[in-house]
Each structure stands twice: as C-alpha cells, then as structure tokens.
Amino acid sequence: MGISSRPARFPPALLSAIDQAKILGVRAGARSAHRFIGIWGVVVKRRVFGRSWGVKPDGWYATFREERLGTIQVGKRRVRVRAKPVRSAAILDAIERAYAEKYPTPGSSTWVRGFRTKRRRAATLEFVPAATPGP
Hints:
Elements: H1 12-20, E1 24-28, E2 37-39, E3 41-44, E4 47-51, H2 60-67, E5 69-74, E6 77-85, H3 89-102, H4 109-114, H5 118-121, E7 124-129
Antiparallel strand pairs: 1-2, 1-5, 3-4, 4-7, 5-6, 6-7
C-alpha cells in the first residue's frame, strides 16, 4: 500500500464549526503543559489559519514554531494539529480579508487592522490535522 501525497484535511463539519466559531482554542506543543487559549481562527479555501497578536517569545506562536505539534479546540471537540508557517502573499491577503469578513463589528476593527501589520502578518500559521500514531 502506497503513501498518499495528498495533504490531510479537516472534515467539512469541523471546518464549518471553526468558520462559525468566534474563538478557536489552541494549545501549542505536544510535550508542553501549555493551556488552551482563545485566538481568532479563520478558514480560507478549506484551510484553517491563526495569527498571533502578541508574538511573545514564550507564547503559543513561538511554541508552535519550535514544536509544530499541538491541539485545536472548537466547542468540545479537540483535534491534534501540526502548524505550518504561511509565506504566500496571496494566502496572507486572503486571510486578512477573512478576518475582516468574520469580525465586522466596530469593536473588532482595531484588531482586524492590527492583524495587517508586518509583524503580525509574519506570525500566521496554518493548522493541519496531525497524523495519528498507529497501534
């Protein structure tokens, strides 16, 4: 049996739940004791993305950059993920549009604009389902 080169994708129902949820829980690191924290997650082209606001050296983004593995939570469902940096300018632009569409309130506008800064734009990760260890 061959190995598929097709990337893992989230099931449509989970993508819909992430798209509808205002907050996505993330816990960075497979071996760490990090807790779940809430971030703004968006879905673009059936892919899940998150952008760090604080970009702290000991925060979720830095931990994901070091360890790559972690967990996302939407509602009561938890899914092991692998984080991948995003470099495509077209995808980064689409993510910014997705933030503006998902968070359109006047109170959110400061945060949506803030996500467009160079530092925060560079702190964007894609979350993909992590391979589950076999028996």
